[in-house]
Amino acid sequence: GAGVSQSPRYKVAKRGQDVALRCDPISGHVSLFWYQQALGQGPEFLTYFQNEAQLDKSGLPSDRFFAERPEGSVSTLKIQRTQQEDSAVYLCASSQDFAYNEQFFGPGTRLTVL
Amino acid sequence: SQELEQSPQSLIVQEGKNLTINCTSSKTLYGLYWYKQKYGEGLIFLMMLQKGGEEKSHEKITAKLDEKKQQSSLHITASQPSHAGIYLCGADLVAAGNKLTFGGGTRVLVKP
Question: In terms of C-beta density within 10 A (0-12 exposed, 13-18 middle, 19 or more buried), how is residue A80 classed?
Fold first, then answer.
């Protein structure tokens, strides 16, 4: 497809379960970003990849959050031992180059932790 | 984010009327992005501003960045129902050119 895709679109997890969220960026895009958007709030930065290198993970809320992009394309955001406060929409974005380029956003994965 | 304040938080306008949304920071806005979001969907890019005093327009939407690069405004002329949604400003506050800090969003409803 032409845009950023994310799967699943919706995920319901029981507290304590592990979840994995997938992001397929636009082909050829070097940069990939993960954001977390709580209900009624703006997105908050989680982590950033340049190709396969994770250059900034300062926004990850705890060590339960882990992201990878092993081949510089698809990325996975993993959350271990989910808690209710992890409930949010997780947005993935990609951009063509390193700086000051439009970030193209996917539709997001809505995670609900019961 | 408290680093980037948007106002108003929400507004209702009559179709055909103009509206303005503001985005303010105490820090320099090295790159300022405006996005639109509809419920359950991702963000749609509207415009990016980088230079102090810069102004860009697309169709009925105009965005400006002030000379000091600490405030931006988004103005919609003759609003239509299709302009309804959540408008978000995002900014690079550290001159890194990558990660964005977002404001809390402005919810716009256009009454026919």
Answer: middle
